[in-house]
């Protein structure tokens, strides 16, 4: 029996928005069903994790948000972030032969440069998860970047020398997003295992973690079952990182 696909069954295609996440959240709050996708040609206020901006020039990237309604505890939603990064990395590897890797928790990198950012935003009422909006931004067509990010960003065109449209990338990506999203709800151990395979820096790698209360240095020791990054300090203590920016020290020294 063929399972009905939810993701992409309804797609709203817009020319220019502030942020696809903003549009998707409005629809989610109004009762939109799970799997609704919002795709825009351009964002004027695209954003990433921790309030950062996401450059969204017209026609040069996939700017997409998906409405999710998982029946899980809000504290367990982090595993969905990992699942989304797996979907993007696999699409780059399998469909475009780009050797993508994941940097905790959900930055998709190629040769140490960022090609995709993922932002998950949720609404919680009375300790119950109402909805999640999954935002994915993929650099597809850029042949160059502003000077401030030229050494830290890349695109599908730069890596594969292939001209692909954002819609083409979305068509390849959406089935994988749905496949790994379902796995995150039913088989979280599979998510952890696959994520670690796609993230060389998740094991035995020297890192510095920047958090709101300072930074810590240590060696990565994989993930917890809920997706937190385990970092071992010099004194042998192990910390579980839930929020923070991770820098691989061997790459930045």
What does this structure look like?
The protein has 253 residues and is α+β, with helices and mostly antiparallel strands. α2 (78-96) packs across α4 (166-186) and α4 (166-186) crosses α5 (188-197). It has helices spanning 20-29, 78-96, 156-160, 166-186, 188-197, 249-252; strands spanning 11-17, 37-43, 61-68, 101-103, 107-110, 113-125, 128-139, 203-211, 214-223, 229-232, 238-241, 245-248.
Can you give keywords for this protein?
alpha+beta, seven-stranded mixed sheet, BirA Bifunctional Protein, domain 2, 2 domains, five-stranded antiparallel sheet, SH3 type barrels, 6 helices
Short précis:
The chain has 253 residues and is an alpha+beta fold.
Mean pLDDT: 89
Q: What structural category characterises the helix and strand content?
A: alpha+beta
The end-to-end distance, rounded to whole angstroms, is: 53 Å
What is the tally of beta strands?
12
Coarse morphology? globular
List the helices and strands and how they pair.
Blueprint: E1 11-17, H1 20-29, E2 37-43, E3 61-68, H2 78-96, E4 101-103, E5 107-110, E6 113-125, E7 128-139, H3 156-160, H4 166-186, H5 188-197, E8 203-211, E9 214-223, E10 229-232, E11 238-241, E12 245-248, H6 249-252
Parallel strand pairs: 1-2
Antiparallel strand pairs: 2-3, 3-7, 4-5, 5-6, 6-7, 8-9, 8-12, 9-10, 10-11
């Amino acid at each position: 029996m063929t399972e009905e696909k939810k993701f992409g069954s309804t797609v709203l295609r817009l020319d220019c928005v502030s942020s696809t996440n903003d549009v998707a959240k409005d629809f989610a709050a109004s009762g939109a069903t799970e799997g609704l996708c919002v795709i825009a040609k351009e964002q004027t206020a695209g954003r990433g994790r921790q309030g950062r901006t996401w450059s969204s020039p017209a026609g040069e990237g996939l700017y997409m948000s998906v409405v999710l309604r998982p029946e899980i505890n809000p504290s367990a939603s982090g595993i969905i972030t990992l699942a989304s990064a797996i979907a993007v990395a696999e699409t780059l590897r399998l469909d475009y032969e780009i050797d993508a890797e994941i940097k905790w928790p959900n930055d998709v990198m190629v040769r140490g440069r960022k090609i995709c950012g993922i932002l998950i935003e949720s609404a919680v009422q009375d300790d119950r998860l109402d909805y999640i909006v999954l935002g994915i931004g993929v650099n597809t067509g850029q042949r160059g970047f502003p000077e401030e990010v030229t050494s830290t960003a890349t695109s599908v065109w730069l890596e594969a020398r292939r001209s692909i449209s954002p819609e083409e990338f979305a068509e390849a990506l959406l089935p994988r997003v749905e496949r790994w999203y379902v796995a995150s709800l039913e088989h979280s151990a599979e998510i952890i295992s696959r994520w670690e395979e796609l993230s060389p820096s998740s094991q035995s790698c020297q890192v510095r973690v920047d958090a709101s209360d300072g930074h810590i240095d240590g060696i990565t020791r994989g993930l917890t079952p809920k997706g937190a990054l385990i970092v071992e300090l010099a004194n042998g203590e192990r910390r579980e990182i839930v929020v923070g920016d991770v820098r691989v020290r061997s790459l930045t020294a």
